[in-house]
């Protein structure tokens, strides 16, 4: 894929050292490092239409709210942008209460309702100019800050947008609303990959089990599945194997609970953008590595719980 010039950079924000506990230990991956800003994309920075590598449409989903979908989606965008600069787009499909703009410190001129209800519907060049660029080297379609405006977006309109962007970008990431509403199902129907989130609570694990069962039953399970155990904490009273036994499938990546995540969210700077080698960053890098077509295939094996705080 053609390489494009860097986007304007903002002032980097450093990460503060934080004590973490890790429950699952897996091989390390690369760490992303960049800085955030808000800008409209220049036409020459966008990837051209042509015959690019195989598209990856990645739906980030969870049965319940509060499990860190936006944290995972934004960090995935930062990490994938290092693999494929200017070939990644992140869509905020939580149409009522999406937080992608806040999580990335962006102030978009146009949001999802503007994009799917305006001239961009029929004009790819207008669509390109409607995107909001992030200095890490990816683009966003941010959600509206008005829930009633977001309600105007239908699942069919979201699906049309995803197909449009798949003609241009190598990676399309969709941050969905909790549950299996029209927008989440529209994203999953088109997705090549689904990132399923749960935490170390019984309601969350049972919710994911039901979600997986429903998708299997209605026949729209994406070809590739990635299960992320977020907010992992041995003090919860459950182990990783307990969660796996409940959901019925293996956990692929465990992201430890850490105050570093809430600090990065409040700053509007994703963990992988700040850099560092924290357990949270290493876990998120392992998730990114699962989408790297050029990386050697790894077997992600669960190990005994290790406390390296």
From TrEMBL:
- InterPro entries with a match to the protein in the record: AAA_dom, P-loop_NTPase, ParA/MinD_ATPase
Q: Name one Pfam family in it.
A: AAA_31
User: Any idea where the AAA domain is?
Assistant: 56-215
Its protein name is: MinD/ParA family protein
Native species of this protein?
Cryobacterium flavum
């Amino acid at each position: 894929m053609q390489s494009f010039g860097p986007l304007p950079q903002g002032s980097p924000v450093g990460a503060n050292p934080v004590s973490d506990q890790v429950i699952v230990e897996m091989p390390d991956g690369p760490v992303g490092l960049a800085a955030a800003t808000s800008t409209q994309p220049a036409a020459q920075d966008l990837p051209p239409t042509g015959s690019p590598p195989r598209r990856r449409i990645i739906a980030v989903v969870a049965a319940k709210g509060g499990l860190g979908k936006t944290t995972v989606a934004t960090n995935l965008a930062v990490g994938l942008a290092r693999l494929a600069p200017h070939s990644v787009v992140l869509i905020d499909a939580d149409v009522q209460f999406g937080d992608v703009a806040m999580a990335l410190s962006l102030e978009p001129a146009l949001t999802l309702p503007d994009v799917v209800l305006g001239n961009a519907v029929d004009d790819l060049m207008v669509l390109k100019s409607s995107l909001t660029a992030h200095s890490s080297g990816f683009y966003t379609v941010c959600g509206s800050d008005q829930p009633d405006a977001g309600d105007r977006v239908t699942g069919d309109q979201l699906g049309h947008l995803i197909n449009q962007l798949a003609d241009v970008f190598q990676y399309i990431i969709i941050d969905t609303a909790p549950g299996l509403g029209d927008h989440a199902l529209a994203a999953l129907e088109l997705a090549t990959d689904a990132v399923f989130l749960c935490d170390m609570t019984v309601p969350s694990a049972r919710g994911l089990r039901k979600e997986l069962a429903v998708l299997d039953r209605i026949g729209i399970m994406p070809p590739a599945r990635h299960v992320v155990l977020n907010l992992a904490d041995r003090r919860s009273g459950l182990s990783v194997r307990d969660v796996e036994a409940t959901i019925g499938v293996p956990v692929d990546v465990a992201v430890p609970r850490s105050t570093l995540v809430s600090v990065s969210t409040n700053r509007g700077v994703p963990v992988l953008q700040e850099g560092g080698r924290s357990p949270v960053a290493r876990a998120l890098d392992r998730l990114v590595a699962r989408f790297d077509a050029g990386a050697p295939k790894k077997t992600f094996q669960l190990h005994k719980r290790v406390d390296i705080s």
